[in-house]
Amino acid sequence: MTLVERFLKYVSFDTQSNEESGVTPSTPGQMVFAKYLKEELEALGLEDITLDEHSYLFATLPANTDKPLPTIGFIAHMDTSPDMSGKDVSPRIVKNYDGKDIVLCADEQVVLSPAQFPELLDHKGEDLIVTNGKTLLGADDKAGIAEIVSAVVYLKEHPEIKHGKIRIGLNPDEEIGLGAHKFDIEQFGCDWAYTMDGGELGELEFENFNAAAVKITFKGRNVHPGYAKNKMINSIRVANRFMSILPEQETPEHTEGYEGFYHLVGINGDVEQATVSYIIRDHDRARFEERKKEIERLTGEINTEYGEGTATLELRDQYYNMREKIEPVMHIIDIAFEAMKAAGVEPHVKAIRGGTDGAQLSFKGLPCPNIFAGGLNFHGRYEFVPIQSMEKAMDVIVKIAELVAAK
To answer: How far is CA 267 from the centre of its chain?
Structure first.
């Protein structure tokens, strides 16, 4: 099975995660996919294959040299985003892309156009795998899985390439921030690892947001509106008051690069009670802590204005910037950088404006930077992946294994 055939098979599995389910994996389709992958890895002759009840799948490609070498890992996630359906994905390949609009769905007038997505033009002349305009594609992160498995197959077929012990880790629920929560790094047994979960060709990432989730419940006082003067407290209006005093320009739609933000992700309620949900993001740890304190201060301001107990805050940290864990072991970045160069890929070191399983794994004791998987426009109907980018990602995995042995 080729890299492309493998990827097209993988995206046929419906593996959307669901943050409301409260179980791991959060959806049964992820375990169905995991069992398929386990059978594939067994057929390929890998060793130490384990699949636990939470859908964490580990496997080993044994070393083919007696030289004492570090054990390295490659990790990808099996779930796709809850943001759009991943059921009945129907991909097609646009050969030798000509730089023009790609009609994904004529009936619904869904068009992948360089006018809206200028990055398409960077892949003119390449072969693009696209959606039918009705689902996401699933390159995030089934491209990563296909690249890892295909690289391992290549190494098995080319024993002249010497390498140490390589571990594969495939996990559920990355898209809902839970992929690393039950990842057993001791069982995984690696000195370091790489997540193959980045986007565009050449991306190499070892910085990400510090992240927190916020939920604020506003309690109102409902009174007949005809007789409500000086009595009613409308919780929706109180919630609106809170939202209005947060900095207007510190939102995702007004920030880029290393700029952090407060992102309103949900609001619901009635006169009696309303809730708002935010996520807080910032690369700088000190500024991140200041943002949390600002939320606490503004909650207190609401209680001062409307009465104690009007606003109740729930705030929890989600993950932290992995940079502080990667800097002491920068040789693992140097190896990835050199591997990209050897594979003919220009490395682009950038900070992730988001999170990755690698961040949480790094704080659990497994340094784990992030390497491109090649896809673009994740989480929606306009997602696509150039085949040539996937091939380069596979080459980078092989080169990393080779370089670790050589060094």
So the answer is: 24
**Both tokens assigned to 336:** 């990835």
At residue 355, the pLDDT reads 78
The model carries a pTM of 0.88
Catalytic annotation, residues: 79, 174
Helix (H) or strand (E) segment spanning residue 167: strand 166-171
Task: List, for residues 354-386, the tens digit of each pLDDT value.
Answer: 878 899 999 999 999 999 999 999 999 999 999
- Token pair listed for 29: 């389709």
Q: Which residues pair with 51 in a beta bridge?
A: 57
Q: How far is CA 285 from CA 213, 288, 361, 365, in A?
A: 15, 5, 18, 19
In the DSSP assignment, the letter for residue 80 is B
pLDDT of residue 312: 98
CA dihedral 387, 389, 391, 396 (to 10 degrees): -170
**CB within 8 A of 173, min separation 6: which ones?**
17, 24, 25, 26, 30, 77, 79, 179, 181
Q: Produce one character per residue of 106-127: b if its CB has 16 or more CB atoms within 10 Å, e if not.
A: eeeebebebeeeeebeebeebb
Angle between helices 387-406 and 139-157 (to 10 degrees): 50
CB-based contact 210:288 (threshold 8 Å): yes
Nearest to 280 by CA among 254, 325, 312, 319: 319
